[in-house]
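subagent[fold] <- orchestrator: predict structure for attached chain, return tokens only, no commentary.
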Amino acid sequence: MKILVVTPHYYPENFSITSLCEEWARRGHDVFVVTDQPNYGYNRILEGYEKVFDEVINGVRVHRIKTYPRKLSRKSIIINYLTFYARSRHYLGRMKENFDVVYSMSLSPVVAVSGANLYAKKHHVKHVLHCLDLWPESVLVTKAVKEKSLMYKILYRWSRSIYSKADEVVVSSPSFETYFREVLKLRLLPIVPIAQPPLLLPQVGEDKEYKHAHNLVYAGNIGTLQLVENLVRAVSLLKDVDIHLHLIGMGARTDAVKALIKEGHLEDKVTLYGTKPRGVTASFFPNATAIAVTLSNEGTVGKTIPSKLTSSLYYGRPIFACIEGDGREVLSQAGGSVFSEGESPEQLAEAMKKLCALSNEELDSLGKKNRAYFDAHFSLDTIADEVLKELKRFQ
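subagent[fold] -> orchestrator:
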């Protein structure tokens, strides 16, 4: 089968779409990806990719759209979004190669996969849109726009139009369907729940050795919804507990986190490493006391299954969780988490105390439960099969 994939992010950016496409190529499918120049998490076009627009990566053909790099400023992020939207539509609108089906992975924002609809309509093929992030809900919960504003109304109509033109929407969290039906009013749109693929790469380097008794690792976006600042405040309250918070990643709240560490003189409690390659990040997990999975309970987005949740299950360590909705249900079923019952620093600190009180045998037992649940429900092989089944329906 020939599969056209449209996604704003791809390797070497750390997104799970790469593993999915490579798995399909390994199975003998012809996969062609239209994506950006790598810039997410780098604040620039990654060195070596400034003039690379076509390449083959592990059997997957990749075309890169010339991209304005996403930086930390809101203006640069908006320009990045609009650049990929316009230039990908231009490229896909002129593309002559024929494919059996179009698959898009919708991250932020949904307008990035608009070109998939354009190609599908022109070539009379079907488009399956895999929704990992809800729009325009995401801009509300991050408080980027207000619900009664003209901008929200524009984004609502724009997002609804893009979703409605897909032939099927695959949702990464079951609660997304309620949003599509009740908020977007897309009651007849075919919707199928399938988890997003796990973000996994082979570990690079030796397992990280820690000098503290208890080590909590957070790896991912340091944004408005991830409660990272509250994690920092929580560990600062545990003056008599030898616990250290390891933060890997960057995002809109990076500077705020840096300021918290500096102002609180928390260098002995918190280390902010910035962005690291996924394989290097994996070396932090084997000896970690737990992996942090935190998400503010705001709107529908706050009730989803974040990508870091499924990959955290894979690493076979306990999960320190502050999450509600679909994410909490998954972790409860897995049985390998210590939950905070609230988002405040005080509540997070109390849960950290419970985590640190567990024996090594108890921690190992929690980790084994998480890995067993991952193998049963979220392996790449399982997700690749489920999505491929939907694509073949429209072949």
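orchestrator: received. Logging for downstream: The mean pLDDT is 92. The first strand starts at residue 2 and ends at 6.
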